[in-house]
Amino acid sequence: MQQDRVAIAIIGAGTIAQTHAAVIAKSPDAILSAIVDTNDAGRNLADKYHAKFFGSIEDMLKWRSQLSIDAAIVWSIGTVIGVSGVWASLKPPEYFQGNGKWRGGLDGGVILINLIHEVDLLQYLIGPIQRVYAEKALSIRSHEAEEGLSLTLRFQSGVVGTFLALDNVASPFNIEAGTGENQELYPFSGQDCYRIFGTSGTLSIPDNKLWSYTEPKKGRNSLPWRYIRLDSQDLEDLAWLMKSDDFLGAAVTMPNKIRVIPYLDELSDDARRLGCINTIYVKKSLNGKGRGSLVGTNTDWIGIKNALRNHEAALVQSLQDRPAVVIGGGATSRAAIYALVKGFNVPEVFLVNRDPTEVEMTIKDLKARGMSESLIHLRTVEDVHEMLHGMTPAVIIATIPDSPPQSESEKLLRAIALRLIEMHSRNSQVKPGIFLEMTYTPSPWTQLAKTAADADWKIVTGVDVMELQAVEQSVIWTGRNIDNLPYAEASKAMRSSIVMDKRDKIM
């Protein structure tokens, strides 16, 4: 099926494009979706392989943006310090004969034919090159053009590197052999030809293997996993990845926490009671053969539970005597309810949302799944005082986006939230509780969180929750405990990417 295949576009319809197109057409895992060129050669190639034709990259990108499908691979190797690369192969005599005679002249050679592409790729990966030192290699063909050279590089970022380019040696180390893109000239080897060295790991390309120290104090062990970011609105993209024998698991975000369930083999007990997941892992088969089952579970609620437990023990203890409130109606609100009920035995959880129907459906669904605890819908500002009997909540968990209210239902939701926050001012004997703001991008300091902080609520942010639930995910995927995972490095990297606030000291 086409939706199970990776869509590829080719920019430029020259000689090598013909090879690329033929390889893609034969692949069961890929489909040639577009050709971009400025002349009829591109249009003819597109017609041959039933692909779309575009006269510019901009037009192609506009077309792709309508599909909202994009995949990117992200590796964490820390600060890049160095890079090494090699393009080495043995070009046969016929490569330089007939129409290819020019390749041995001053317009050819390994620099203009091969190295220019490697330098382009290096600058894409590392940044602009600032300084180059080169040494010419031995020549064996008596051509005018050089047959090889070695480079010492310094990039503007301070990264240093080396590169070796040779077209007169027997070698499997070149990008074409490593990827198999032109097997008529370069037999497939699967070998790497680039290595990027960082403070936390080393990445090789194109085999995309990541090496790092997992226990620097106890020994040097290789991490055999990599984390792939998949930005897509099409679940078939994830389904395609899950079929791979190399698939270890996945973190699932909105809006797919419920939609992905039909693609799984089974659910954990927590996921069944919640009716949504955020984590997929592979459970080994009983006989040890085959890939095993795809299991969906939920670690959001564990992150919420642990984040609350790490702050203000006395307030958390008061949950058994004071009400709790969840603002929002999506999958995250379900996790919040579950954390309060299962983690703290809260007798009553009050729900607030802009869509009353969604709240009623959530209550009905959770009760049908065995959550018999009292779930109460706050519909109006007046309900806040009447249904809570004037008691300030011990915890308020907000799971809604930080955007100004526009519709009447959104304005009502905001008014109810503000009344809940200010309740303690009407009862001076009751201290304000914990306000957990689940939103963390671009900043966890939403308008509601700032208002709650100004009203002396203890603020816990979604950054804490995300970090703690991610620990649970990593333990599930890898089978390692937290002491054997790079928790501190991951926490630092995550927090550095989020816009924080001077009030973070109270977190």
Shape, per Cα inertia axes: elongated
- Specify the CATH class of the largest domain: Alpha Beta
| Mean pLDDT across residues | 81
Q: How much of the polypeptide forms β-strand, as a percent range? A: 15-25%
* Ends distance: 49 Å
* The CATH H-level homologous superfamily of the largest domain: NAD(P)-binding Rossmann-like Domain
Major β-sheet annotation: 7 strands, mixed
How many extended strands?
22
Radius of gyration from the alpha-carbon trace, in angstroms: 29 Å
**Uncertain residue segments:** 66-75, 215-222, 502-507
Based on the coordinates given, report the CATH architecture of the largest domain.
Answer: 3-Layer(aba) Sandwich
Mind explaining what this structure looks like?
The chain has 507 residues and is an alpha/beta fold. It has 4 domains: 69 residues, 3-Layer(aba) Sandwich (Rossmann fold); 132 residues, 2-Layer Sandwich (Dihydrodipicolinate Reductase, domain 2), CATH 3.30.360; 59 residues, Rossmann fold, CATH 3.40.50; 166 residues, Rossmann fold. 33% of the residues lie in helices and 22% in strands. The protein has 16 helices and 22 strands. A 7-stranded mixed β-sheet has the order 6-7-8-5-9-10-11, covered by helices on one side. Strands 19-18-17-20-21-22 form a 6-stranded parallel β-sheet, sandwiched between helices. A hairpin with a 3-residue loop joins strand 9 and strand 10. Helix 8 packs across helix 10 and helix 8 packs across helix 15. The chain starts with 5 loop residues before the first strand and ends in an 11-residue tail after the last helix. The C terminus is likely disordered. This is Quinate/shikimate 5-dehydrogenase/glutamyl-tRNA reductase domain-containing protein. It holds the Pfam family GFO_IDH_MocA_C3. Belongs to the Gfo/Idh/MocA family. One of its GO terms (molecular function) is nucleotide binding. InterPro entries: Aminoacid_DH-like_N_sf (IPR046346), Gfo/Idh/MocA-like_OxRdtase_N (IPR000683), GFO_IDH_MocA-like_dom (IPR055170), NAD(P)-bd_dom_sf (IPR036291), Shikimate_DH-bd_N (IPR013708), Shikimate_DH_fam (IPR022893).
